[in-house]
Amino acid sequence: MQKNNPVQQGENCRIGSQAVIGEGVVFGHNCVVEDGVTLGDHVFVDSNTIIRSGVTLGEGSSVGANCILGEYQMDFFRDHTPHIHPLTIGPQALLRSGTVLYSGSTIGENFQTGHHVTVREKSKIGDHVSVGTLSDIQGNCTIGNYVRLHSNVHIGQLSCIDDFVWIYPYVVLTNDPTPPSENFSGVHVHSFAILATGTIVMPGLEIGQDALVAAGAIVTHSVPDYAVAMGNPARVTADVRKIKNRATGQIAYPWRNHFKTYMPWQDSDFESWYHALDLDEKQHFGIENIETE
Fold this sequence. Notes:
By secondary structure, the chain is mainly beta. The protein has three helices and 33 strands.
């Protein structure tokens, strides 16, 4: 079913007669859109992309070539019969080529992926989340708002990542205390924490609010709020609030007081933005008791 404007499509596309297609939608070549798909207005879908039944993709989204949205879960391979597990992706998504999003997840607005990203089923992802090239979210995970995962990041099942977290390349969040087993225990990363390049976090641990885990650290014990942890095994070495910027000599952390690109306070500053929020909005971000200057 189409709205007023005709769909623009390349050669050899197969668009289900029961798919709901918004106005101004454009398809490349060889796209497959199954019945039961809903695409918002002004969506762009590049060539060789498959969108399976149960997918809802918000308006203004762009999908690169060779993506799969609504990838089958294991139940399909038991009987080769499609089982509908809805996948909802909010408006203004940017999914780069090779992205595979499994069915059965909920993803907020302004979601971005690099190339060849995988997000498994039963993931709940907030708004304004970015996942870098070759990163892998292994399902049954909860990721908050304004979280930025760089390239080659592995997020194990049952991980919980709160709002405004930075995770740099080659970070691994593990989940099996006695591998191989079925007794998974996910890592919990609290708001404003930073995991630097090459960090490995052992199962079931907590990375505290505003904590900074240094590059290459192997985290075997939970890290307190505002702590700097480094080494193998990682040990707390300082309070992040005492670290100075080498170039300016100014206090560098909490980083929210000095960095605003892509953040909701980019037009002002964190403190002004924070104090303008009502209690419900602060609770939405999980920052009702955050420290301000």
